[in-house]
């Protein structure tokens, strides 16, 4: 009997909405071997092959259990049997608080880096409708605002790749039927049901593993509505920032306070500016942003706002590190070229910044020798070049 084609066509329609891809698309997909990522790999394999392209599966080994390496190798071998090239990424996270969230972030970072290195600019992830509902519930319990309650987006940039979630509107029950019809047996991760983790407890409370019940539907629809609100707010924020802020390539900004305003859009714009300058992975607390706006200046998220200028807070800069090409300092500055055995670190208070405000110059990178003498910076010098390339925040 011919397998049902419902999910195939739904996947193709989702990909069409996420495109265009051009001829011979080269895709990557994060594959754990679980039901949803396994279905994604099969769907993406067929979709890419039909267009003369290819799929690379990326299998993350978190290294949290002794057997995890063998399991990742088994998943890669299983994918090879299905005609999918696979690469195992060893993460080896340390145990400790916030393990699930840290593992999620480390996995996403490793997947994006590997996809970019492989020349596969589209990175597919297997989150589905129940995952979206769970994300909204999780963030609501943490007091998230409109941006957080919008949940996951179908497409977003991450470094040099574009993350795509073509199954985001699909119920997990449909994915399970797709696998069963093809005789594919997925791996089941027992930690997904471990009540020690908040998301597992939420999943149990929703009590809808198939993702077809009214609770999941309502949460998914709410995420969609919040997503539209987020898109409108982002457009308003972008327009406001164009009119009130000039961002300098050195990683600081000039701010027209009057043009910024004091409304909700101003708060969101200031929050985005703080993240852009400080490289924060998450927006600062809304109450803290409102207080900063009310004061008309101050410190927040590793950023100082004084008068017309917004720059990195010097005392929050990272310690100096060897300035080897490729090194990322302070989560924001990438060393392109550096002579000898120099160190990259903050210029520090009292550094002559020329036309720059003193606190802005103090938070910019300079090159020093082992004795602490400044060899170059904050700007470029002989054999010395750095670029403002934060690894998190809106400019990542």
UniProtKB/TrEMBL annotation:
<keyword id="KW-0067">ATP-binding</keyword>
<dbReference type="InterPro" id="IPR011063">
    <property type="entry name" value="TilS/TtcA_N"/>
</dbReference>
<keyword id="KW-0819">tRNA processing</keyword>
<dbReference type="InterPro" id="IPR014729">
    <property type="entry name" value="Rossmann-like_a/b/a_fold"/>
</dbReference>
<keyword id="KW-0547">Nucleotide-binding</keyword>
<dbReference type="InterPro" id="IPR012795">
    <property type="entry name" value="tRNA_Ile_lys_synt_N"/>
</dbReference>
<keyword id="KW-0436">Ligase</keyword>
<dbReference type="Pfam" id="PF01171">
    <property type="entry name" value="ATP_bind_3"/>
</dbReference>
<keyword id="KW-0963">Cytoplasm</keyword>
<feature type="domain" description="tRNA(Ile)-lysidine/2-thiocytidine synthase N-terminal">
    <location>
        <begin position="28"/>
        <end position="204"/>
    </location>
</feature>
<dbReference type="GO" id="GO:0005737">
    <property type="term" value="C:cytoplasm"/>
</dbReference>
<comment type="function">
    <text>Ligates lysine onto the cytidine present at position 34 of the AUA codon-specific tRNA(Ile) that contains the anticodon CAU, in an ATP-dependent manner. Cytidine is converted to lysidine, thus changing the amino acid specificity of the tRNA from methionine to isoleucine.</text>
</comment>
<protein>
    <recommendedName>
        <fullName>tRNA(Ile)-lysidine synthase</fullName>
        <ecNumber>6.3.4.19</ecNumber>
    </recommendedName>
</protein>
<dbReference type="GO" id="GO:0005524">
    <property type="term" value="F:ATP binding"/>
</dbReference>
<dbReference type="GO" id="GO:0006400">
    <property type="term" value="P:tRNA modification"/>
</dbReference>
<dbReference type="GO" id="GO:0032267">
    <property type="term" value="F:tRNA(Ile)-lysidine synthase activity"/>
</dbReference>
<comment type="similarity">
    <text>Belongs to the tRNA(Ile)-lysidine synthase family.</text>
</comment>
<dbReference type="InterPro" id="IPR012094">
    <property type="entry name" value="tRNA_Ile_lys_synt"/>
</dbReference>
């Amino acid at each position: 009997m011919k397998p049902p084609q419902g999910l195939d066509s739904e996947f193709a329609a989702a990909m069409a909405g996420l495109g265009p891809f051009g001829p011979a698309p080269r895709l990557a997909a994060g594959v754990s071997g679980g039901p949803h990522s396994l279905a994604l790999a099969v769907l993406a394999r067929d979709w890419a092959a039909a267009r003369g392209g290819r799929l690379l599966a990326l299998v993350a080994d978190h290294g949290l259990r002794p057997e995890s390496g063998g399991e990742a190798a088994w998943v890669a071998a299983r994918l090879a049997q299905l005609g999918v090239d696979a690469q195992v990424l060893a993460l080896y996270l340390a145990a400790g608080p916030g393990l699930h969230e840290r593992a999620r972030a480390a996995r996403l970072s490793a997947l994006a880096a590997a996809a970019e290195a492989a020349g596969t600019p589209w990175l597919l992830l297997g989150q589905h409708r129940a995952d979206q509902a769970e994300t909204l519930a999780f963030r609501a319990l943490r007091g998230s605002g409109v941006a957080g309650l919008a949940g996951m987006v179908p497409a977003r940039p991450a470094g040099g790749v574009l993350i795509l979630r073509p199954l985001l509107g699909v119920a997990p029950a449909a994915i399970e039927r797709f696998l069963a019809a093809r005789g594919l047996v997925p791996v089941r991760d027992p930690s997904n049901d471990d009540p020690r983790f908040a998301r597992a407890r939420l999943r149990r409370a929703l009590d809808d593993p198939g993702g077809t019940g009214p609770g999941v539907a309502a949460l998914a629809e709410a995420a969609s509505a919040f997503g539209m609100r987020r898109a409108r707010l982002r457009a308003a924020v972008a327009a406001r920032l164009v009119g009130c802020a000039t961002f300098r390539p050195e990683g600081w900004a000039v701010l027209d306070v009057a043009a910024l305003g004091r409304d909700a859009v101003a708060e969101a714009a200031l929050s985005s500016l703080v993240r852009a300058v400080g490289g924060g992975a998450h927006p600062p607390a809304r109450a803290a942003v409102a207080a900063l706006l009310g004061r008309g200046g101050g410190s927040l998220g590793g950023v100082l706002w004084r008068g017309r200028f917004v720059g990195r807070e010097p005392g929050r800069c990272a310690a100096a590190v060897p300035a080897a090409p490729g090194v990322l300092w302070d989560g924001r500055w990438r060393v392109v070229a550096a002579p000898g055995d120099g160190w990259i670190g903050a210029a520090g208070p009292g550094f002559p910044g020329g036309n720059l405000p003193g606190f802005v110059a103090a938070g910019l990178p300079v090159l020093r020798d082992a004795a602490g003498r400044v060899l170059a910076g904050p700007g470029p010098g002989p054999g010395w070049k750095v670029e403002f390339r934060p690894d998190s925040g809106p400019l990542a």
